[in-house]
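Write out the 3D structure for:
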Amino acid sequence: MPIGPGDQIGDYEVTGNLGTGGIGCVYKVRHAISHRTEAMKVLLPDRPGSEEVGERFLREIRVLASLDHPNIAALHTAFRHHGELIMIMEFVEGMTLRARLNSSQILMSQSLDYIGQVLAALAYAHGKGVIHRDIKPSNIMITRNERVKLLDFGLAFRGRASEITRTGLILGSLHYMSPEQVLGERIDARSDIYSVGVTLYQLLTGRTPIDGSGEFAIASAHVRETPIEPSRFNPNIPIVLSRAVMKALEKEQADRFQTAGEFLDLLASIQSSLNPEETMTMLPTPALSRENSGSRQKRPDPTNAASRTSRTLSGASVLGSIIRELAQYIGPIAKVVVNRAAKQAVTLDELYALIATEVRSDSERKAFLATRQKYSVQD
């Protein structure tokens, strides 16, 4: 359904294009009767997996309909137009936190305030049983009066994640994913807390805590590597704040803050204990060259196997792809085998070497190892 300025969609006139996301386009619209400016979200046409995407879009509508919080962009209504689902939402004027990071330096007090508002929104949503699953700077809008609005509940779910996630499928933005989300395991509110920790780390240091030369390297690092403490990058960061960020980034869910409210309370306590001079500290401006990476990109080492063998795939599931390859030979247990091996392997070659031993037949093992070439890049 091609849409442009001047088009009439139900009672709404399209006045502009606000952007395109992974599954939908967002337009600026004006209601014909009230003249209120709103945002209209529609699904991208002819998208692969349209049935599943349609279900996700409907789920987003229903999740947002259950939420009413000043830090969450509100759903106004939803309807069908020529058989297509249309979502009408609050129009939020401002810039995303990602754009804010790129535009100028941010005070420490501002960073703590922004994250505090995100945590307030999540504490409310989690209390309603809703997990966001895609917390990142581009889904956090900052209005002109410094109000945070949490956007894009397209990956959100209510209840158990296993009810809506296919085996081996990883959804979300890889730099901001929790270890359990990377591994495709069942997640809860503590996964959102990890993603908030990543975002706060980026605000404080100008880089994401986890990075790598490709998706497998990043995914493996989320599971295996402990980030450098923020205070080591920026000595102006109070140690107590640096440790709070590290607690949010713990690999094990039980070691993190158990609720968004707990994280929020500690940040509020830290902010109130700082003297005005400390809160006015200017934090570094990161160079965000792409949507999902706020860290400064490391130049690949040509002698490093990970640099030679990693490959960036569309979607976020190189592990999921390998699980499906292995499942042809050993069945559903492939998910457990691959996820377990991913915690030990550093490169794709190491991962394949570990999991190939589970294939009993020599001919089948050879055939499976041949699939390794799908994920290779040229030196």
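The chain has three domains: 8-90, 94-283, 305-375.
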